[in-house]
TrEMBL record, chains A, B, C, D, E, F, G:
Alphabetically ordered keywords of this record: Cytoplasm, Nucleus, Proteasome
Protein's UniProt name: Proteasome subunit alpha type 6
Quaternary structure note: The 26S proteasome consists of a 20S proteasome core and two 19S regulatory subunits. The 20S proteasome core is composed of 28 subunits that are arranged in four stacked rings, resulting in a barrel-shaped structure. The two end rings are each formed by seven alpha subunits, and the two central rings are each formed by seven beta subunits. The catalytic chamber with the active sites is on the inside of the barrel.
InterPro entries documented for this protein: Ntn_hydrolases_N, Proteasome_alpha, Proteasome_alpha-type, Proteasome_asu_N, Proteasome_sua/b, Proteasome_subunit_alpha6
A GO BP entry: proteasomal protein catabolic process
Keyword flag Ribonucleoprotein: no
SUPFAM superfamilies from the UniProt entry: N-terminal nucleophile aminohydrolases (Ntn hydrolases)
Occurrences of domain Proteasome alpha-type subunits (ranges): 12-33
Entries under Gene3D superfamilies matching the protein: Glutamine Phosphoribosylpyrophosphate, subunit 1, domain 1 (3.60.20.10)
Any matching Pfam family: Proteasome_A_N
Length: 260, 260, 260, 260, 260, 260, 260
């Protein structure tokens, strides 16, 4: 670390307090933890479908590949991809499951994706305001089908920010993936200029999955095999959150290769 | 940071204690956090109408524009625009909703805007006196129609100060917006000199909305489109807090352009 | 800050501990916070009347003048002027209202002014002895009519000191105002030498109000308009704490001008 | 503060811990706070009478003289003079009143002076052992009539030390007053050599009061008027703690002047 | 420690906070504690069998060899090998036993190995997020037979990461052991290329045990005697967690020697 | 304080933690506090009698001599002499009284001296292990008659060490007094060589008292008067703890003078 | 302390956190506290007998020798020798007694020695993980007869490590004593090579006691008298924990002298 960096923070980064510039350094360092995790995740929302996709990188050939996943089911109808510190990821998912279960108990119906995203973000905000714990070093991309609004895609970061997205990315290559996705959506929009501000893009199920995959391939600069990719999906046909089976990923990879 | 700045604070800014000059640095840094958020918000109170307006800046083209808002409904009759750190904004709104709901439960009628503003300010003050948490990096402009007093406009800052206003501003261009508004209100007052100290200005619904919009346009130095602006409104005709639909914003923009 | 100032405090000012000279620096800095607030308040106790007066300085022309006040009603019969950090002022008033309400519940009669002053001072003292919170940066001047003792005027400071006064001042020009008041009371006493030590001065209602106003005018070195002044009053005729209406302030200003 | 002083304490004075010399610096600084308060108090125990006396210095001519007192009634039968930080004084008196009331509730008779003194001292000791609060910057001289032992005079200091005395002093001129009192008691003893070690000196009511007054006059080097002195008294004739009325103080001053 | 190392951490390693690089130093130091414990442990999962193996190094010839073990039974059906700080190991095992017992009480059946592993990892994560305690300096390799999934092997580290493995290692020679195991599994896979990603390797009971032993022998560079090795085992034939008796270890050592 | 002393402690003395040499500095400084109190106390255990003796130094001639004592009754049958910080002494005695009362309530008989000594020592140990409070700066010498063991003499120090003694000392001249007592006991033992290791020395009541007095006289290098000495005593004849009346002290002083 | 030592620890030794090398310095300093206590203890386990032995060093000739002991009874059937800081020793023994009593209450039979040792070690581990208290500066050697396993010998250290032993040592000369014991056990084993790994050595009662004594004599380099030694013993004949009477120690010393 250069001494000028130190001079810039001067102790404000050791706890949850404002720096003279109004910054919260611990939050910024949590973002660094996410970037340095080495993975990139993608979320894409289509007309009837919403997917999360991420690399499946087995750090060690001896690991049971089934036990390495960044994609988690929260309820039968809501799932997410977690990018960042793995134990923080699991801790956040555990809390999300608790929130969802308690909501179902209390109100008798499943928690809508946006309500769940808001609650998770509220918990993340607390870790940026109170001195008792550090922020979580993880970024959640959450998907589900809202009964009224259709496919939903949210991103929740360590600062406690949550937003709906047409498509988004998190992790090491977040910036490159976002650029790629924006370019793609621009060309889609330009074809379909009447629908400029509509979140529910006109992407079909296949297009949605393939956009997620091609974004991963593009930013990682490598041909990915089906076993290198994890995809979670919800669609209005089947609103249950499911992991795309490896053979379907393979089929989509082939279609994608043919299309190009 | 220059060394002289450091010498000026000398550790008093690391916690909620007085500096030798009687300053609370963490509070001042929270104001910096608000300014550095990059947004400017406006509140204007008219004869029968009160509005909050702010820029709608979508940081990322892929974000679902519906999910980006700085304007929040607290009860059916009270709303606000939040300027500053977004998760702090949402956390403060959540607490405001709780306060309002609990008031309604206890007393059987809706919380008046001024009572709500006072309660939110009291909570903000606690964060400047106790060591358990930092101040919130957010400024709230709250509006509603008081049954007896008519349109009400309040601003609540991280120090816990709350005031009623004829018009006010928060955020990056707060100073410029305030100057613009003062000039406008001066010319209104000079025309209507009998009503010098009356908060309920003589502004009609259209004038109120247009003043909010023209202030934003003036300080941002740019022609704003309807989609770049968010406006929340309450009026004595319709005391419910509502978001102005984009087409009406468009209509007002056209009228404003014609007027000039 | 000069290095010698630092050497003089050497860390004793960062918490509620004694310095080697037996000083509590946080308390002294709280007084600085009061002085630097820019306002001056006056309390004057007459024969049958007691008033608090302060400047009404609207920092921003757009502020609803009604929402800027330094004078607060605590019960129907006790009120105060608060000088210093505004949110601290409101927080202290809130606690005072609670104390008064709880006293009334428990004993079935209104809390006497001196009992209330003592309780508020006790709370202020706690903030100078325990590490959990900083002292409040506010000075309260409290008035009321005691059933037996007649008009009462108390001042409560951040150190937890409270005293009864014939007349007192707080804020930026406290010293100048005190000098002015002493001189005035001296000339009154000299005329009425039999009554030297009696708190209940022989000032009539008009004299009491005018002394408060003329003190403000004198220390601020400016002709004040009725709208620049706030006055709270209790009298044996009408023991309810009321704000003097602007037209009566105007009348008193005229009388004062004529008298001089 | 000289650098050698700092070197001598080296951080041991910032909390309730032992210095390498076995000192508790915060306690010593509390004594400094008492000395720098500017007042001196006296307690004298006679045959049937015990008094506390102190200067009544009105810091500000506008203060209601009745509201400035250093002498407090704790129960109907026990009172004290407090020297040091005024709000700490009142806080300690409040606790003493609580202790006395709770004792009376529990045991059905009034708390004896020595028991009360011990309890107050125990509380003071806690502030020198636990980190939660600073020591109180006040010294209490407590008097009362014990049913069996007669007049009682105790001094309780910030270290938690309490002692019975024939006569004692606290505050700015404590040393000078103590020297004066010792000299006086020596001459009394020499006259009445049989009664050398007996606390209940042979001083009559008048002698007791006059010794307290003359001590004050001597150390302050000034002729005191009745209004400059406060005297609290208990006697076996009237065991209730009462404040000596100003006219009796005047009478005693006259007798004292005549006697000399 | 070189000064550059200090500069790199600069206080971020003294508590559970993020460094500017997004690192949690206390967690990294906990891993150092595990490595410096001097022991290496192995877990291997076969077709019907799963074993944990470790060195049994009696630091002192006088120690009762029976009291030195790194292998612990958690329930009748789940066991583990602990590598790192011994008391931390036992503390973690105690908590695991509690979790398992409470699960059995609540649900009426034995806790599955993967659920137990997750719960232990969740507790470890808490020690990396909250300031109340340091992370545990221990790595757990946990085995059991899942009713549906067959033999299971998990590793849980101080960061709170847990993973399923075909084979894994922990401790001083973790890297060398992992390399050796990977090479072995590669040659197994290459023979049985259809089964590339299947966790349940085709290793028979004897092969499983012998692979664990030969890994230990390889990385320690020494001929191990039966008394130098501890082996815990579960198999689908006998799902109870048992320690392999010394004579069977001896038999396996002989077979291994003959095979080579 | 020399800089080398500082270098030797380097912060380890600011709290209850081990120094690199395994020392607890706060405990050592508590011993310094005891030594610097200026008093010396003696305990001597005879055949049927056990006494504590100490100087009675009235720091101020005006103090009621009766209120200065270092000797405290804990129960009717157990008493002690306290040496060190006076308020700490009283605090410890208060706790001892509570312990004894609670024991009597629970078990229906008086707490034996050794049990009480152990409990007091346990409390003292807590102050050396937990960060919540400093050690007490006081050393207790406790005496009583055990129903079975006869006269008992214990010393409890700030470290929480407690021991039974034939004779012991505490305070400023502890070392000198101990040397003197050892020499005396050696000569007693040499006369009575059969009884070398027996705690219950053969000292008669008079010899016990006189040894305590002569030790004080020896180390203080001054002829002590009866009023300069306090003696607490228990004996098998009268197991109640009593203070030796001044006339008996005088008689013993005379006998002692005659004996020499 | 050399400056390089300081550089090596750099603040990691001021609290229970890991150093960059994964060390817990406070634990290491607790071991230093044990070594610097000046005593050495021995535990030896024979065929039917298990003993703890230690020096009895009376630091002061006036101390009642009966009150100095390092050997404590925990239940009728389990005892220990404590080496290190004496008050920490007693505190740990008190907790052990509580644990044993509570176990007996709950389960209706006496706590087995190994269960008790584990519980004590668990408590010691907590002091190495949580910031609330320092580790205890004491090492416990605990003995007892297990109903099934026969004589048992455990050592529990400040790190929370506990182990069963054939023989062990703690304190100043721990290393020398361990070497001596190892040599002796080696020669025993070589005679009885069939029984190499069996904890229950073939030592008879006399041999067990004499080995403990001769180890002490060897490392202390001095002829010890019976009164210089304390021995606690349990045997299968008499499973109650008893202190060996001085005359039996004497007899064993004589036998030992004759044997050599």
């Amino acid at each position: 670390m250069s001494s000028s960096t130190r001079a810039g923070s001067a102790g404000y980064d050791m706890s949850i307090i404002f720096s003279p510039q109004g910054k919260l350094y611990q939050v910024e360092y949590a973002f660094k933890a996410i970037k340095s995790g080495g993975l990139t995740s993608i979320g894409v929302c289509g007309k009837d479908t919403v997917v999360v996709a991420t690399q499946k990188k087995i750090p060690d050939k001896l690991i049971d590949p089934k036990s390495i996943t960044s994609i988690y089911k929260i309820t039968d109808y809501v799932g997410c991809v977690q990018t960042g510190i793995v134990p923080d990821s699991k801790s956040q998912v555990s809390k999300a499951i608790e929130i969802a279960a308690s909501f179902h108990n209390k109100f008798g119906y499943h928690i809508p994706p946006n309500v769940l995203a808001k609650r998770i973000a509220d918990l993340a905000q607390l870790n940026t305001q109170h001195a008792s714990a550090r922020p979580l070093g993880v970024c959640m991309i959450l998907i589900g089908i809202d009964e009224e609004l259709g496919p939903q895609l949210f991103k929740i970061d360590p600062a406690g920010v949550f937003c709906g997205y047409k498509a988004c990315s998190a992790g090491e290559k977040e910036q490159e993936a976002t650029n790629f996705l924006e370019k793609k959506f621009k060309s889609i929009s330009s074809k379909d200029s009447n629908n400029n501000n509509n979140n529910n893009s006109k992407l079909s199920r296949d297009e949605t999955i393939q956009l997620a995959i091609s974004t991963l391939q593009n930013v990682l600069g490598a041909d990915l095999k089906a076993s290198d990719i994890e995809i979670g999906i919800c669609s209005t046909d089947n609103i249950k959150f499911t992991l795309l089976p490896e053979d379907e990923i393979d089929t989509q990879l082939t279609k994608l290769a043919e299309r190009d």
